[in-house]
Design brief:
This protein is an alpha/beta fold. The chain has two domains: about 1-80 and about 165-249, Rossmann fold, CATH 3.40.50.300; about 90-165, no CATH class. It has nine helices and ten strands. The protein has helices at about 45-50, 75-80, 95-110, 125-135, 150-165, 180-195, 205-215, 230-235, 240-245, and strands at about 5-15, 20-30, 35, 60-65, 65-70, 80-85, 170-175, 200-205, 215-220, 225-230. β7, α6 and β8 form a beta-alpha-beta unit. α3 crosses α4 (about 125-135) and α3 packs parallel to α5 (about 150-165). The radius of gyration is 19 Å and the shape is globular. The chain binds adenosine-5'-triphosphate (ATP). Adenosine-5'-triphosphate binds near residues 42 and 43.
């Protein structure tokens, strides 16, 4: 089997007496969507932040592309190709959608000797940025300030920005949140194709999306992975049904 792109080994994080991450190990393999599901407060977001670098674990390892990245900060992990799109947006609201993506393209290219050229006329920035907006279905809204985009459009923009950074893996925390049924369907189709570009660790409450997309699912309950498997394996797992799926209407 191909080497995992991302490996988490025995990660632990407590907040006081609460074990938010209680010995979590999981892998993200090339080409896969690995969904992380679990009830509210199970520790999904805390885990994602430890992988991205925003929260320091008490112990355990995060290995990305064969390198232990535990000592690196958020920006250094992003530069290594850990792409993120979070519930909390990092867009520049007054800038157009295009300009927001251009900033990402620029940070990837490095910005030497750029200041002599008017940025919006710099085709080495506008063309790749436009291509990303086209891929995420936002090209027609390129000149609209991020602040005026709808919630769903901002999600598309965040993904365009993540793509512009040339990710080797994606961490997506509830990308479907706040999307209408139409938006969820469109985003599901988009993520379906994206896995071949970079594998995705997907935290998501929308079970239709999870069951449609996931190659594997890990179920987190009280900071522990109680099951990992294919959709069918996880749906048929008695402990999962009891702890999580069974309690849903
Ligand atoms: N900074 C913090 N200080 C103290 N407790 C925290 C902190 N961050 C998270 N927690 C607690 O850790 C547990 C896990 O929270 P987390 O947000 O990771 O869960 P989650 O699975 O992402 O939940 P949800 O599905 O509701 O987003 C919760 O009990 C939460 O209250």
């Amino acid at each position: 089997m191909a080497e995992p792109v991302l490996s988490i080994r025995d990660l632990r994080k407590s907040f006081g007496a609460l074990k938010a991450t209680d010995g979590v190990s999981l892998d993200l393999r090339p080409g896969e969507i690995h969904a992380l599901i679990g009830p509210n407060g199970a520790g999904k977001t805390t885990l994602i932040h430890q992988i991205a670098g925003g929260i320091t674990p008490d112990s355990g390892e995060v290995v990305f592309l064969g390198e232990d990245i535990g000592a690196l900060g958020v920006a250094a992990r992003a530069r290594r190709g850990l792409g993120r799109s979070f519930q909390i947006s990092s867009l520049a609201p007054e800038f157009s959608a295009l300009r927001n993506v251009m900033l990402a393209v620029q940070s990837r290219q490095g910005s030497s000797f750029r200041f002599f050229r008017p940025v919006m006329k710099d085709r080495s920035l506008t063309e790749p940025a436009m291509a990303m907006l086209e891929r995420t279905g936002l090209a027609a809204r390129a000149n609209v300030p991020a602040a005026e985009l709808s919630h769903g459009e901002r999600r598309q923009l965040e993904i365009a920005i993540a793509l512009a950074l040339g990710p080797r893996a994606f961490l997506l925390d509830e990308p479907m949140a706040g999307m209408g049924p139409e938006g969820s369907r469109a985003l599901t189709a988009f993520l379906d194709g994206l896995r071949h570009e970079a594998p995705i660790l997907l935290v998501e409450h929308d079970m239709d999306a999870v069951f449609a997309l996931a190659d594997r699912i890990s179920v987190l309950v009280y900071g522990r992975v109680i099951a990992t498997g294919t959709v069918d394996e996880v749906r048929g797992d008695a402990e999962v049904r009891r702890a999580y799926l069974g309690e849903r209407p």
